[in-house]
Amino acid sequence: MTTLLKSAVPSTASDRGTYTYVAVYSAVLYTVLLIAPVVAGKLIQQFALTPVQLGGLFSLELGAFSLATVPAYLWLRRINLRTASYLFTAVVIAGNVLSGFVDDFGLLMAVRFVTSLAAGSITVILLTLSGKTSNPSRAFGIFVVCQLAMGALILAVFPALFANAGVSAIYWTLAGLGLACLAVVNRIDGEALRREMPAAAAARSKVPVAKFAAGLAAVFLFYVALSGVWSFMAQISAAAGTELSATSLVLSIATVAGIVSALVATVLGDTPRRRLYLIVGYLGMALSVALLFGTPGLIQFAIAAVIFKFAWTFILPYLLSTLADLSGGGHVMNTTNLMIGGGFSLGPILSGSLIQSSGGFTSMLALSLAGVLASFACVLVVAKRQAA
Q1: Where does residue 271 fall: left (phi above 0), alpha (psi -120 to 50 degrees), or beta otherwise?
Q2: DSSP result, 202-217
Q3: For residue 219, which of 83, 252, 339, 365 is within the disulfide window of CB 3.0 to 4.6 Å?
Q4: Biggest alpha carbon–alpha carbon distance for the chain
């Protein structure tokens, strides 16, 4: 029924405004996570950090992104979304400016936590508004592709641009990007959630608990599997005897494939074939993980990496829009943000532990393959009930 109601709503200027807001903010907000390889060396140099301290800082920022979900249950439907966006963006800007001046690592961690908590709060708005557009798959496609494009740009430009600069210059650049985001806040409908509050509450009350749990499990398992494999792609290739330069080239090509697939999903948008696209995407992702077993040569590794990244970024918009259909967005997407962060942070830890305990990649890949298939099964349950 939700799908029928959405299909009856024409694409409006409000949708276009939301797409613009999602595009700009998703590219800028996730920069703080995408710059990790660039900023790591600068932080080590300035603060003399150990690997544990550095990893702790990045984990803290990622955790804050996810924890923003918890307070959002209280404010998301009570505050004008424009006001919230201005407020949280101001905190992000101030946090990045202050990060450039801090010379104590403990204080830096506190500032980065608050900054990431504000950025995660805006992410909750992004996901919720995306789910309320007349074409959620397109909105989520924009959400994914803008992150990937910014990530490719950062890895290409930032190392050279900030080669002779301190970490302060990077944080201040992030502050400038945050300032630019303020120009698109007025493109969204600030009262979208408060105005539809009674209807949304009624819709949520009709969502079966099992269906809701299956959808969240699908997202969580999906992120555990993909982050666990992608974090160790280079090590899998190196264990097979492939040179680092060849591995880097393959991963660069795979990143381009990911951008292309996200663009394809964005252009296609919502479609009656969404379930079919999810099936094809999940099977492709499972096949790519299976190709990594053993000691894959360069060609086999390249095929696996390209399929993996293409399938992952193609699935994601349709996976998120499937969850958005459970209640037209709202707190379903807020909780989804927590699942994304939890799965993203747990995957590498689990994979690293399995690799260390077994001395190889077989058990890690087996767990990731099981995670992909389990996520696939959960999605089929949700999609089947929606179709019914």
Answers
A1: beta
A2: HHHHTS-HHHHHHHHH
A3: 339
A4: 60
Angle at 165 between CA 164 and CA 167, to 5 degrees: 135
CA 229 distance to own-chain centroid = 15
Tokens (6 digits) for 377: 């099964």
- In total, the chain counts a number of residues equal to 388
- Closest among 258, 261, 208, 221 to 379, alpha carbons compared: 221
Q: Would residue 4 count as lying in a domain?
A: no
**DSSP letter string over 303-348?**
HHHHHHHHHHHHHHHHHHHHHHTTTTSTHHHHHHHHHHHHHHHHHH
Q: Containing domain of residue 310, as a range?
A: 199-387
pLDDT in tens, 230-285: 888 888 888 888 887 888 888 889 989 999 999 999 998 887 888 899 999 999 99
Position 377, amino acid: A
Same domain, 187 and 250: no
The identity of residue 164, as a single letter, is: N
Same domain, 318 and 362: yes
150 lies in the same domain as 35 = yes
Q: How far apart are CA 230 and CA 247, in angstroms?
A: 13
| Helix axes 51-67 and 331-358, enclosed angle (nearest 10) | 150
Q: What is the pLDDT of residues 153-203, one digit of tens each?
A: 887 787 778 878 888 988 999 999 999 999 999 999 888 877 765 555 555
Residue 3 lies in a domain: no
Burial of 180 (0-12, 13-18, 19+ CB in 10 A): exposed
Do 212 and 72 share a domain, yes or no? Answer: no
Q: Give a yes or no: residue 317 inside a domain.
A: yes
State both tokens at 100.
């450039």
CA distance 129 to 143: 11
Beta strands of 175-249 (E only): which ranges? Answer: none
Beta-carbon count within 10 A of 356 CB: 9
Within-domain flag for 162: yes
Q: Are residues 39 and 173 in the same domain?
A: yes
The residue from 164, 195, 226 where one domain ends is 195
